[in-house]
Specification:
5-stranded parallel β-sheet; 4 helices; alpha/beta; 39% helix
């Protein structure tokens, strides 16, 4: 897991911090972005194996971010919005750290 890089995108700093710390405790390398625009800027500079994003954010929301990403980029949506389309892998907030780490592991191990 040492080489697996994950970008956490959420407009709430405490959520980003909790997710990043949970992922780092599980052995992943994690970075943060405050919205979809910041995420795109980070993705231009670094390669990430997974993007975890909120759906509802200012400036550029999760739906807009996904429209800009390559289809090959794995994404996990973590949101309190029940309107996330079923075609995306998602978790509903609130999310426990163990639940997040398990979902990440499952997603990264799936073909």
């Amino acid at each position: 897991m040492d080489d697996i890089r994950i970008l956490v995108v959420d407009d709430h700093a405490p959520v980003r911090y909790l997710f990043r710390r949970s992922l780092e405790s599980a052995g992943y390398l994690a970075s943060e972005a405050g919205d979809g625009q910041e995420a795109l800027e980070a993705l231009e500079k670094e390669r990430y194996d997974l993007v975890i994003t909120d759906w509802d954010m200012p400036r550029m929301n999760g739906e807009q971010l996904l429209a800009e990403l390559h289809e090959s980029q794995p994404v996990l949506i973590v949101s309190s919005n029940r309107g996330v389309p079923r075609r995306y892998r998602s978790l509903s907030k609130p999310v426990r750290p163990r639940q997040l780490v398990k979902a990440v592991k499952d997603l990264l191990e799936s073909p």
